[in-house]
Amino acid sequence: QVQLKESGPGLVQPSQTLSLTCTVSGFSLTSYSVHWVRQHSGKSLEWMGRMWSDGDTSYNSAFTSRLSISRDTSKSQVFLKMNSLQTEDTGTYYCARNSGYFDYWGQGVMVTVSS
Amino acid sequence: DIQMTQSPASLSASLGETVTIQCRASEDIYSGLAWYQQKPGKSPQLLIYGASSLQDGVPSRFSGSGSGTQYSLKISSMQTEDEGVYFCQQGLKYPYTFGAGTKLELK
């Protein structure tokens, strides 16, 4: 069955870099796009960017040049790296498969930016 | 960016009651709209896509309608398990954007 699972540190210091991994199973990264979506505590969802099935990437301009998404198809993993973290980057980070819409989501990883 | 405005922000409904949630886009999104349900501590789950298509496994009491800039989600008979937060999302243009959410509680 289709599964996505995020992993990464729960605590990051301000100005540091966040590195998250999304490990997928049940489908191929060369057939579907995988996106990253962020949610501030109890609030709405914010689309961050995506890794397309052909390896192309697209980012939300709200994150300017801070965000980078890459993948390792041999390991079925998609990576998120975001630098210059601030306290307002605290939230839950999800990866989700998109087949037109977000039909499968990971369970999310809670990230706190604090010194 | 396309702005998505949801209403109401919260509502409570009795068992068996019909519930309607509205979503308005800042421009025509040509039915490129999805609805998600999120329960506390869980990730969002896709309910409706393409404005009116029911995702596999979703109960038939959920339905979506609308066109242009105005869309709605209807629950025909409120059940206990329908409590949660509902989000609309436009999938027409990047960046994809979501509504602020509607919190649905059982009265």
What features would you describe in this structure?
- The complex is a heterodimer of chains A (115) and B (107).
- Chain A has 115 residues and is mainly β.
- Chain A contains no helices and eleven strands.
- Chain A has strands at residues 3-7, 11-12, 18-25, 33-39, 45-51, 57-59, 67-72, 77-82, 91-98, 102-105, 109-113.
- In chain A, the strands form two sheets. In chain A, strands 2, 4, 5, 6, 9, 10 and 11 form a seven-stranded mixed β-sheet that branches. In chain A, strands 1-3-8-7 form a four-stranded antiparallel β-sheet, with no helix packed on it.
- Chain A is globular and about 40 Å long.
- The model of chain A has no long low-confidence stretch (mean pLDDT 96).
- With 107 residues, chain B is an all-beta fold.
- Chain B has strands spanning 4-7, 10-13, 19-25, 33-38, 45-49, 53-54, 62-67, 70-75, 84-90, 97-98, 102-106.
- Chain B is globular, with a radius of gyration of 13 Å.
- The N and C termini of chain B lie far apart (36 Å).
β-strand number of chain B: 11
Point out poorly predicted stretches of chain A. none
Class per helix and strand makeup of chain A: mainly beta
Number of helical stretches of at least 4 residues of chain B: 0
Q: So what's the oligomer here?
A: heterodimer
Percent of sequence in beta strands of chain B: over 45%
Radius of gyration based on Cα positions of chain B: 13 Å
Listing every helix as H and every strand as E from the N terminus to the C terminus, the arrangement of chain B reads EEEEEEEEEEE
- What class, by secondary structure content of chain B? mainly beta
In short:
The complex is a heterodimer of chains A (115) and B (107). Chain A is mainly β and 115 residues long. Chain A has no helices and eleven strands.
Give the key terms.
heterodimer; A: 115 residues; mainly beta; seven-stranded mixed β-sheet; four-stranded antiparallel β-sheet; 0% helix; globular; B: 107 residues
Secondary structure topology:
The complex is a heterodimer of chains A (115) and B (107).
Chain A: E1 3-7, E2 11-12, E3 18-25, E4 33-39, E5 45-51, E6 57-59, E7 67-72, E8 77-82, E9 91-98, E10 102-105, E11 109-113
Parallel strand pairs in A: 2-11
Antiparallel strand pairs in A: 1-3, 3-8, 4-5, 4-9, 5-6, 7-8, 9-10, 9-11
Chain B: E1 4-7, E2 10-13, E3 19-25, E4 33-38, E5 45-49, E6 53-54, E7 62-67, E8 70-75, E9 84-90, E10 97-98, E11 102-106
Parallel strand pairs in B: 2-11
Antiparallel strand pairs in B: 1-3, 3-8, 4-5, 4-9, 5-6, 7-8, 9-10, 9-11
